[in-house]
Every structure is written in structure tokens, then in C-alpha cells.
Amino acid sequence: MRVAFLGLGIMGRPMAANLVKAGHEVTAWSRTPGKLVEGARVAASPAEAAGAADVVWICVSDTAAVDSVLFETNGAESALREGMIVVDSSTISPARTLAIVARLAERGVEHIDAPVTGSKIGAESAQLIFIAGGEEAAIARVQPLFQAMGKLVKHMGGHAMGQAAKLAMNLQIAMIYEGFAEALALATKLGVAPEKLVDLIQSSMVRSGVIDYKAPFVLKRDYSPNFPLRLMHKDIHLTLDAAREARVKLPGLETVEEIYEVAHDEGHDDLDYAATLMLLEKWAGIEVGTAATR
Amino acid sequence: MRVAFLGLGIMGRPMAANLVKAGHEVTAWSRTPGKLVEGARVAASPAEAAGAADVVWICVSDTAAVDSVLFETNGAESALREGMIVVDSSTISPARTLAIVARLAERGVEHIDAPVTGSKIGAESAQLIFIAGGEEAAIARVQPLFQAMGKLVKHMGGHAMGQAAKLAMNLQIAMIYEGFAEALALATKLGVAPEKLVDLIQSSMVRSGVIDYKAPFVLKRDYSPNFPLRLMHKDIHLTLDAAREARVKLPGLETVEEIYEVAHDEGHDDLDYAATLMLLEKWAGIEVGTAATR
Is B95 on the interface with A (CB under 8 A)? Predict the structure, then answer.
């Protein structure tokens, strides 16, 4: 298929590369000039990319960026033709997604919201899970593209339901990790060796993919960003905004958000979100390199 | 071995029954008269039970109850002899555990803290995990008893480290479930079908044994107590007390505790702790039986 790929960040670039690998004709555009994907053509604007495609795939950082690639001067909208499909793999506002769906429908263009889970490694290995909202028929039409980039498409319901479910997933990741970090800080201060706590977790019903993945890095205090703190922070904001609009109270997530605010203030934005543990350790007076890492 | 088993509650009774099944000579005592375990002798007091035993196994509801079965009039202490071992499978204060260890040591009695994870079903099927603190040699001596009641003993370190690690585990269970409940409330209010969210969770890194176990009950809004809310509430209190004493800040758990306070005020103590979801649904105006259970 002919695909315009908009956004070549930490996720978008390997996703576009996997489309090329699967034999699709990709025209790529990135806000940052000079980003390339081998085998893909480069477009000077979202409009130029969309003009050469039947499907426009968006993977940018936030709601404002999606609005910009679609609707600003030289945005993709100006090149959209009836029957085209726009797929948005960014994680953005469900409410704004519904407004975009309506605006594109006026031009006879279909929209699928399909944020992903699986982070950088999943993008590189084509093992992403797409969390999709929209019409069944449209999702079926782009199935070959989903297959080229992921292992699974979960159809959550109508428009914006992919975004709603994605927020609900990241909420859980943030809470699972905060629970782990608080448990680790407490157990360490009380005298339990961190590796022993992790071993116990792995043998129990507390075990999850989140901690399976994070624990080895945390035990080494390796906070190199797989999922940067600032992006998790952004998703938490988005989730609390959506919750406020929908009149849903999320006390746990509100508290976790306060911790991310402090982490931001202390300059940890570009570390992995696992670095929120550093704050708990600091507040508890745990000296890493001694008790915490023995 | 000759075992005095003190406490025949939701956990203690099946544990004592499994000791009998494995051929051990059990003398049981329960605060509530009339509770029996087939094949076990009944003692009129903890002291009488301990007098007929080499190992005293305690499984009661809280720190005060442990103090009482050991040190009150007709408490087990008065019948303890040098070389005996006291094993405490209750979940209690790590700090108080250290004080008990010291007091028993004066009589030449060893102590192992061995709280369990696996709840009622694990106790019945002899699949408990014991989270143990104390001397390696003492733990080795009671290995046949651990084997009769559980599938695994995790030795976490010196005295009270089993209690410390147990608190860290329940902290995580409470946080994982709160994350799930907030995710479910938000997604439901935004229009995602609850079963679809659960299915997505099961396919993702968010999956955990906690939610594998709870989700089927939650989808049916079946809050019959497997782990009663009042006991989880008690453990959260205990954890926050231990954290305060150790100068560890646990912001997430503090917030979850507030939710349990409200659940207690609203009379949900004897439901499963999963019933904390009811509060989120109430605050969000989600009508169960319609949107939430469709």
C-alpha cells in the first residue's frame, strides 16, 4: 500500500522502517529535518506526503502535534481525498480525537485511532499491540499495515475508544510501577535486600510484565530512557484531563502525577520514568550504592 | 512433628488441616470456641497447646492478637521450653516482631516470622508462599511443616525481614488493584466495554496474577470476600505505620488508604477489597448493571 508516515521519533522511525521492509511504498515526513528511513521517500511537508499516499499514518508526540500535522499550513488535510484513511498511533486526547474524526468525515476520509503499547523495543521488533477505535471495515482495510508493525490489533470499540483504552493502560503502568517503587523503598529501608524482594515478586501473583521489564534496570539503577519520564508525565496529564472532562475521580493517579511534577522540577524528564524511584529514595534518606544496591 | 497451632481463622484452619494430613501431631487452639480441625486435638488455651508441642505455629489476625496468644494469662510463653521454635504466619508489625524475638530468645526459644501470600485458596490447596525471616538453621528444622502447607519458602533475611517483605507485597497488591479499578472506571465512563479492557490487559505487559484473579469476579460485581477489605485495610495501616517509623514516604499508598477509610465508613469491611471499585463508580456516577456491566 502507499503510506504517508508522519513523525519519525523513537516509535515512528522503526514503525516506518517495518512498513518499508514489508514492501509498502512509504513517503515519510518528520518535523525534525534530516531524519531518514532507508527505502522510504522523503516529503517536505505532511501535505506532500499525503498527496502520494492512500493511507496517512501519524505517530507524533501529543495532541497539539497531531493537530499541527493535519491542519496547519501544508498539513495533510489539504491533500486528503475521499476514501483515504488516516490512522493515528499517537497517544492523544479522546475528546479531541472525536473532533478530528468529524472534521475528516466531512471530506469523506475515514479515521482510526490506534495508539500502541510495547514501547521502543516493540516498535523495532514489529511486536507492537495496536489499541484501535473506529469502524471495523476501515480497520480491515489497513490490516496489512498493522501486521507489518505489530503482533496484535485490539479493536476496543468506536472512534476514540482506542485512545480511551490506551490512557487506561498507561494509568495502570504508572500505578504498578509506583507500587513497586514504594515497596522497594520501604523494604530496603527496613533491611530487605532489593534482589530478594524482586525474586519474591517474580514468584508471586504480584508479578507483571511491567516489573519483569523494569526490575533488572532498576536493580542496576540504570535509568536510560526506554519510556522517558516526560512522555509518561504527558500521558498522565492527558488521562487526568480526560477524567476531569468525564467527571471521573482518579485519586491514585492524581498522587502519582504530583510525584512526576517533582521529578520534572528536579530535572529527570529525559530519564526513564523508573527514575521516580530516586525521589522516594531521597525522601527516605536511602543512599544508593550502599543499602539500596547491596 | 508435634505442633501447637494457634488461630483457626480463614487461613489458619486449612493450614492446620494440611499439617494433620501430612501426618503431624497437631494440638489446635482458637479464640472462638467450637472451631475444630479433624484429626487435631483441641486445647483450652495457647499454653496448653504449647505444652504438648515442639513447635508453636501462630496464625492470627494482627499484632495485638499475637501478643495476646503469646504473653497474656495462659499465653503460650508460659509453656515454652528451651529449644522450641515459634513460627508466626500472621502479618504483623516488623518492629514488634523484633521485640518478640528478643523476649523469646531470653528463654532459649527461636522465632521465625513467616507471613504467607496466596490467600484462602492457597491455604486450602497447600500452595502458600511463606515469606520468612530468621535463622537459616531454624527454618531448616521446620521445613517439613512448611512443605505440608505451602509450595515455597522465600528466606528474605534476618528476623522481621519476612514481615517487612510481606508488607511490601501487599502494598503492591493494593496499588495494582487501585490502578485497575481507576482504569476500569475511566474506560467505562468513556465508553469502553469492561470485558474489552480486561482482554487488552491480559494481552499486555500490564497483566498480573492479581488482576488475572480479580477480574472475573469484578466483571460480575461479585465482591464475596476472598481477601476481606478490612484485612487489606489493616495491612495498609501496618505498612504506613512501619513506613512512618522508618521515615519512608509512601504517597501512593497513603492515598489508597484514604479510599479504604471511606470504604470502611460506607460499611464495606466484610466485602472483598475489590469493592473499593464501588466508590470510584459512585464518584463517577457510573450505574452498575448498565454501562459498567454491559
Answer: no
Q: CA B271 to CA B172: how far, in whole Å?
A: 20
- pLDDT tens for residues A35-52? 889 999 999 999 999 999
Q: Is the minimum CB–CB distance between B244 and chain A shorter than 8 Å? A: no
For residue A14, what is the domain's CATH number? 3.40.50.720
Which of A136, A158, A180 is at the close of a domain?
Answer: A158
Question: Are A80 and A109 within 8 A, CB to CB?
Answer: yes
Tell me if B113 sits within 8 A of B124, measured CB to CB: no
The answer to whether residue A292 scores a pLDDT higher than 60 is no
Task: Report the DSSP beta bridge partners of residue A129.
Answer: A117, A152
Looking at the fold, whether B237 and B282 belong to one and the same domain comes out as yes
Residue B110: other Cβ atoms inside 10 A: 22
**Which residue in the list B35, B166, B196, B220 is annotated as catalytic?**
B166
Residue B193: other Cβ atoms inside 10 A: 18
Q: Is the same domain home to B70 and B108? A: yes
Cβ pairs A/B, distance under 8 A: 246
* DSSP states of A67-101: HHHHHSTT-GGGG--TT-EEEE-S---HHHHHHHH
What is the amino acid identity at position B141? R
For residue A294, what pLDDT band results from cuts at 50, 70 and 90? very low
Within 10 A of B187 (CB to CB), how many other CB atoms are there?
A: 27
Summarised one tens digit per residue, pLDDT across range A110-144 is 999 999 998 888 999 999 999 999 999 999 999 99
- Give the burial string for A231-246 (b: 16+ CB within 10 Å, else e): bbbbbbebbbbbbeeb
Answer yes or no: is pLDDT of B95 > 90: yes
**H-helix segments, B115-250:** 119-124, 136-141, 143-149, 161-190, 194-202, 209-219, 229-245
Q: Write the CATH number for B231.
A: 1.10.1040.10
Domain that holds residue B289: 164-293
CB of B71 less than 8 A from some CB of A: no
Residue B195 · residue A156 · CB < 8 Å: no
Rg of chain A over Cα atoms, rounded to whole angstroms, equals: 20
Residues A250 and A239 sit within 8 Å (Cβ to Cβ): yes
